[in-house]
Every structure is written in C-alpha cells, then in structure tokens.
Amino acid sequence: xxxxxxxxxxxxxxxxxxxxxxxxxxxxxxxxxxxxxxxxxxxxxxxxxxxxxxxxxxxxxxxxxxxxxxxxxxxxxxxxxxxxxxxxxxxxxxxxxxxxxxxxxxxxxxxxxxxxxxxxxxxxxxxxxxxxxxxxxxxxxxxxxxxxxxxxxxxxxxxxxxxxxxxxxxxxxxxxxxxxxxxxxxxxxxxxxxxxxxxxxxxxxxxxxxxxxxxxxxxxxxxxxxxxxxxxxxxxxxxxxxxxxxxxxxxxxxxxxxxxxxxxxxxxxxxxxxxxxxxxxxxxxxxxxxxxxxxxxxxxxxxxxxxxxxxxxxxxxxxxxxxxxxxxxxxxxxxxxxxxxxxxxxxxxxxxxxxxxxxxxxxxxx
Amino acid sequence: xxxxxxxxxxxxxxxxxxxxxxxxxxxxxxxxxxxxxxxxxxxxxxxxxxxxxxxxxxxxxxxxxxxxxxxxxxxxxxxxxxxxxxxxxxxxxxxxxxxxxx
Lengths: 366, 102
Prior knowledge:
Chain A has helices at 3-9, 18-25, 40-47, 52-74, 79-93, 95-105, 112-125, 130-142, 161-166, 173-185, 191-196, 199-226, 230-234, 238-241, 244-254, 264-267, 275-281, 287-292, 301-308, 319-335, 359-362. By secondary structure, chain A is mainly α. Chain A has one domain (3-362). Chain B is mostly beta strands. Chain B has one domain: 3-layer Sandwich (Rieske Iron-sulfur Protein), CATH 2.102.10. Chain B is built from no helices and eleven strands. Chain B is globular. Classes of the chains: A mainly alpha, B mainly beta. The A-B interface holds A 30, 40-41, 43-44, 47-49, 105-107, 110, 112, 134-135, 138, 141-142, 198, 200-201, 293-295 and B 13, 16, 46-48, 53-55, 57, 62-67, 69, 79-81, 83.
C-alpha cells in the first residue's frame, strides 16, 4: 500500500465524521472558489430569467409523459407497450432529475410558482424529499466534492464498480431513497440531514415525506386492487426502469475528478452531448459552467460556455469520450484512490487554483 | 448613524447592485428600475457570499451562490436556502451622488 492509498483508503464520506472537521480546519468548507472573469454587463445578460424556454420544455415534457404513458397502458400486452413504457420511463425517471435540479435552483422559470410546482412534482418522481434535497444541494454547491462536507458525492473512493453499474437500474438507490422517505415520514431525519437542514425546515421535510409516501402507498393499493403492474409502471417504477439516462449523465459530472479542491475546473466535467440528451438533461452537461455560475439558467449555459471556454479545460467531445476517460480513472482509483484526472487548460486560461488540492493533484498528478 | 457617500448615481445601472466596502463592513447598494436607491448588508445571511455578484429582479436580489432571494427594499428572506432577513439601511440620492446611512 502506498502512502496515498493509506491516506485515502479510510476516508469517511459522512458529514458527521472526522473528515468534516478536517475540511473545516483546512479551510475547505464554505471557501472562496475560483471564477472565470465575466464582465458584469455580460453576466447580467446571462443570468436573465425568462419563462419561455422552460414553458416550452415543460409543456413538451408533460405532453410526452401523458402520450407515452397512455399509449403504454392502451397497448398493454403488446410489444408496443414495452416501447412506450421505455420512453415514458426515461421521461419520468431521468428527465425528472434535471427538472428537480433547475427548479430547485429557481432558475428554470422566471415565475416563482412555476419553479416550485415543477420542483415538487420532479422531487416526487426522483424520490427525493423536496426539503431535504434543497438543503443537500445547497451544501453540494457550497462544498462541491469536499469530503466530509458534500452530501452528494456520487462516486466515493475507492470506486465500487458493481455499485456504479447497478445505479443504472436504480439499485440500490431507489431502495435507499424510499427508505429515507419512509424514515422522514415517521418524523425522523438522518444524522447527515440534521447536519445541513436548519431546524425551521425540518417539519416541512417530514410533511412532504408523508405526502410522497402516501402517494406510493395509494399506488400500491391500486395495483393490488386492479391486480395490474400498470400503476407501478406509471408511478414509482420509472425510478428503476427509466433512470439509466439520469445516471449516465450524473456520473459524468464529477466522476474521476479531484476531491478537496476549490476550482470547479478540477472537480467537474463539461461534455458535449447529443441534442436529445441535452433536452432531457437540461444542459447540465455544461457542468463546470453551472457550478461556477449557478445563477445562469439552463437555457443560457451554452452561451456561458462559449463566453468562458478559453478559461476552461476543453470539454470531452462526446459521452463515449467522457466515459472512456472516466472509467479509466475509476479503475485506476481502485488501485490508487488518490488518483484524479487532471484536465489540461488552454493557453488562454488562468492557472488552476493550486493552493488547496487533493494529494495527487498537489503532487503534479498523472 | 451618518450619511456616507457611496458613488455617483450613474455608477449603478438601473435594476442592478454594487458592492460598497466601508471600514471593515461591506454593503450592497441597489438602484431599482424606477431609479430609487436602496442599501443592505453586503453578505448573504446564509453563507456569507457577496450579494453584489447576484441578480436583481424587480424588488429582489438573488444570491449568486445558492440562489436564495431577499427583498432588497425590506430585507425579507423570500426563498430558501435563506431563512434570515437581510439588514437594510436608508439610502438617498444627493445631487448626482448616492449616500447611505450606516
């Protein structure tokens, strides 16, 4: 075992262990992060809110959900039903994640009630407590991939490849998400949730967990009464059979990148992807840009990317290219948990913020 | 309490905000779409981020880090993750200058 292995092998990713105190002591918690320079006038234009794009995308999303769901039920028992439920599953079990995310930031729509309505619907679809995850995601932005601080680190080191593959069929995530909702519905919050949800919001978290669990119980009752799988394929089930696209996109965000750095160019990944995936994912493939400037709405991220790309590592050219690099890094992290991809900056970019990096990056990386 | 000179009126665009540091304190000074001026503490009550990097929309300021929102005219916290109100300060236009009473 190398020195790096010894350092990383026992890392504690919980928010209540010694890593949390260590991150605070090192100045990694609630720290100042690197930002590319964008003149105020241009940034104001990029941040500008509008309902137009999200209205269009939401009408299309809900319309497609109703269309594919109805056709799946009407053609039940035929091969066509499989096709329509496959489409419905992705629209429900994958597109919900990006809608949850953007509406949680409050940037998708200009009109606040629209953000809130879609946020609550999408939170239910993705099996996330809307209150707990709002606070979880705020922490993710405060302390992105800071071990002991960030509750949303998807790939912990050393990576468990079997667990990562199972994520594509919603396992064990859906089980743990449902379990956590059940625990919340009983009036309890987990130790990590107590760490980042303020006391004034905890009652709301319990209330919404009860609403979600109540709908799931009603769905199961309807499925039993009608003795049909259809209700479960329409509600809840897509979190398992339709989540593969969400996982495909989500793992790319930070997988194989650095931990414990204060420069999103080192811990996040931007990938150029096909237009269908971009629509399903609401442009979160521009992930470095999103983390650097979270107040820029999804529909303006391509423009933000164009504006600051001279200060960013070149994006991966495709999903395949991103996965090739990421899988190589994850396999290497199984042997060397301290390893992280070190992106190459263009000549026009300012240097990485080098003062607080994880061990491998600090040592020059590979 | 004393009126302190901040900047020329034209230094803040309409529906925008600037950071103003005075002594060891930092403030956010706003100009509304109607041309009225306002002032608040400069840091978000959630995570101590400078609000001057945020977005002014109508009567609200959105924090650039976590998208929490305040009414910058009253200081009221409007949107999670902010829960605690922002302190406000009187502001006025004197000639072509903006002043705040801190």
